[in-house]
Here is the input.
Amino acid sequence: MTATRRTILALGASMAMAWPLTALASDPIRIGLLATFEGAFTALGEDGQRGAMAALAEFGAEAGGRPIEVIVASSTGAPDSALLAARRLVEQDGVSILVGPLSGSEGLAVRDYAREHPAVAFINGSSGAQDTTLRNPADNFYRFSTEGVQWMAGLGTYAYEERGYRTVAILGEDYSFPYSQVMGFMLEFCEAGGRVPAKFWVPIGTNDYSSVIAALPEDVDAIFVSLGGADAVNFLTQYQQSGGVAPLLAGSTTVDQTVLSAEGRLRTGLIGVASASPVAGTNDAPEWLEFVAAYRQQPGALAAPSLFAHAYYIGMKAALLAVEETGGDFGDNGENLHAALAGLEFVTPTGPVRLDHNRQAIADIFLTEIVEAEDGGLTSRIVRVTSGVNQTLGMDEAEFLAMGSPSRDNPSCE
Amino acid sequence: MSAASPRPAAGRSLPAAAPPGDPSVGAHLGLAAALLLLPAVASGFILVQIGAQSLILGLLALSLMVLAGYGGMISLAQITVAGIAGYTVAILGENSVAVHGFGWPWWLTVPVAITFAALGAALIGWISVRTQGIYTIMITLAIATAMSLFAQQNYTLFNGFEGFAGIPAPTLFGQRLRAPMAFYYLCLGVAALCYVAVLYGARSTFGLGLQATRDNQRRMRALGFDTTAHKVFAWFLAGIIAGLAGVLLVWFQGRISPGTIGVAAAINILVIAVVGGLRHPIGPFLGAVVVVLIQTFATDVVGAARHNTLIGITFLVIVYFSPDGLLGLWSRFQGQFRQNPLRPGDGA
Amino acid sequence: MSSVDGKAPFNARQGLTARQVWAGIGLVLALILVWMVVAQWPAWLNGILISKRTFLTTLLNGLTLAGLYFLVASGFTLIFGLMRNVNLAHGSLYLLGAYVGYEVVSRTGMWLLGVAVACLVLAVVGLILQVLVFRRLEGDDLRQTLVTIGISIVAADMMIAVWGGNTYQITEPDWLSGAVRLPVVTTIRADGTAIFLAYPFFRLFVLFLAVAVGIGLWLMINRTRLGAMIRAGVNDRAMLSASGVNVHVVFAIVFALGAALAGLAGVIGGSALSVSPGEDVRYLLASLVVVIVGGMGSVTGAAIGAVLIGIAEQLGLVYFPTYGGVVTFLILVVALAVRPQGIMGK
Here is the structure.
């Protein structure tokens, strides 16, 4: 029974553990990696890990003159389990930096937990709930990746002005992430003069969309879809099969690489679909190409890194750059580390990033279009880049906050 | 497990009267001393994440054990009952999501939460006592699913998918109850209280009546007992325990959402109760410690991704080889060393 | 309604009246439905139900989904009826069937071969489970059920280990793809051209297949020697065994058949929709609800339950998406309150 013995060993070790606040220069720095390796989001978590490990490999697993030890923990994608895993990494394994988690509501839970351990630096993985950093932010929670509302930058204006859509119906999963994507889209689209006459919110995990497709209004110019993972694959295939005619606009996760590389019939109907995202498949910036090459070294890599790999890469890279800047000495309460992180500006594979006063990234967003790749698969092509997108999409912060959190009915422009 | 089986096993004793492996007074005192002294040696993490979490999940499994062990009704809805209490605390007390959060003091929210939980449990019980054995499992599973689905979709009361966060544990006489040691002792105190109450209750007239109903409902009815009322009342009592666990659970996590009361959580409680053993109220706590240890440390053994396999296999092996869970293994082990030729057949 | 008090067996006369009332209601509903299919809808009806096309498509989707649910649930109910074994790993069998089907179809391109291999593999898996696990726990229903929970936990994790978290779709053959025009006019344009209802052929095929399987099962149970044994076993296992039938062989056959049906449903579901982790729980819950509503152990009950749940789910998704999922479980609770043993249960 190795399990029992090891468990007892682990128990004993933790009981005897004293906090290693004054670390020796040769001691490894422990970084926790929290992602989802069980349940429905497994594929996304695995790609996130590939991204983080690509960053680690870039630094040769060493920063600030000290070796880096990465401890991996898994959550199910539910906030409760993210909380348990984060506690374990911080309180049991004694990590000084935690990179993660993956999904929106997990991010909120980890943000709340971060307050209990002000010395530890919490760097977001790919979780994209806006409120994590906008409302009630934690001083030691950093997000170098952009979030759901930011990701939509440019799409609303483009849809109205260049595609000429005047009315758009919305279809999304019924929870916070699609709400924020819809808000990001509608802020621009409604501002430009467009109207959104109908919204359909379906429960997360719906696999049969054919009835919903039949219920979509026929008199709109386009349909904006924000569904993730298997939900997106199901909808896109069935939309094609039932001969859907209205053109589609897609949320960032709806046409993410994890969906585009799904095996099956998902094909021609997707070509030409417009979306906006922090990553794009066909990006010929040298930083991006380097990143793709490093990413492809990781076992099981997809054709192109997904936005999860990208977000975790940026998070891990920020952590390592900050460690480098401190020279391996975080200070008694991690103050050197926090100072380094708060002031960190660097060039990511997708352009420069810096933090605002809430420790939220201001970065570039790509407006994309789905095209056929050279190898016959699908990929996303950059139509234009919106530079320096902040969390309020350029609006005044007080005005933006006054609109309230995104929800089923907020915003609205029927 | 055989205690809860509808099959009338020969020589089955009432668990409360003379169960095999019943910890003696000495064992109880030793265990109590060890648990009381644990904070002297253990870190805050061990106290809360292992200690307090095991005690909370153990309480939930205990409420299942009361129904299954004494009443022959396996419920998958105990987490739902705990959820009623947890959501009540979040809605009536404080939370940070700016939905409801009436800011009632804890001494008001907690009794109300537990009352709601117990009444909810009685309602679930009233629906499901029409069924028996495996039917009860399925109906309570359906109720648990429906409840979690409803909480996920309803924003006006349950705040939908996000649920509630930032739910603080109270501060008592200047002591934060959520501080590791205080919280550990709080959970230990509640668990000990419920444990003793269950031990005592099982020997009360009501407890004996419930066990008799489990063994032969028809005869009990013929004797003039209102067996339905008996069972529903058992649900009510188990609901109080689950409600207490629910309150502790939201204080532990500081949050509650539909996932907290989902199918996976419901099955987790059943796994804990069965792994520990359903013949004696110590079983659920034993099971909780084992499952929490596996869930926390399996990463070191089988890697982050495969710990569910380890839990599943542990569960399978125990169900398959020891119908009475770890307790059954223990009594078998004990039986080999104890010279007691008059002892009836071990285990099932 | 005589069954409210749950003690109906002795007042047969009242039961007959209730049946007549139900038949009357059913007839009226059927007439309304026929009118809705044939007639041109007035504006007020369009206002309530969005459009004729939406409503009829949703209804058809409900029926075809019911077909899929029936394929899954029929195996579940068969196994329960005979062995009193609530196989909570039935969803895992479905998912395994889908993955096996996907592997075969994506490698060979032969859809029918995928169906056959999935059925065969799952039948063998079912046989192994019955012989190695369930036979040893025979008579202990509760432990059997708990073991199936354990199996489903391990199986879900192992399938993620092998197939990852990706979403797969099984490509249906060309002769089953595409849409057919149904002889139902949805709208008449201003210039007088009628627009007919188009519907994916594969989904109709699912419905046909479910009906065929249902008839096949009915014939097998009611017209064959094996069926007679199964019926006898459902009524009284001990007597069947005492009359010289080797019940173990009957059990093994039924378990293999039930598992094969789950595998078949997996390939069908993976072709019509998709395959991904988590589908096991979805179809397990669906089977549970279908079978509890329809009556445990009854194949006819499974068919009725599947139609009710399938249609309710699709109508719910379109007309009240927020609580559509809850409606399914509401039906369950109502069914239990009125008829705890299920519609066709004894």
In short: The interface with chain B takes residues 6, 84, 86, 133, 136-137, 139-143, 145-147, 149-151, 153-154, 156-158, 160-161, 281, 285, 288-289, 292, 296, 322-323, 325-326, 329-330, 332-333, 336-337, 340 of chain C (CB under 8 Å). The mean pLDDT of chain C is 87. The CA atoms of residues 166 and 276 of chain C lie 6 Å apart.
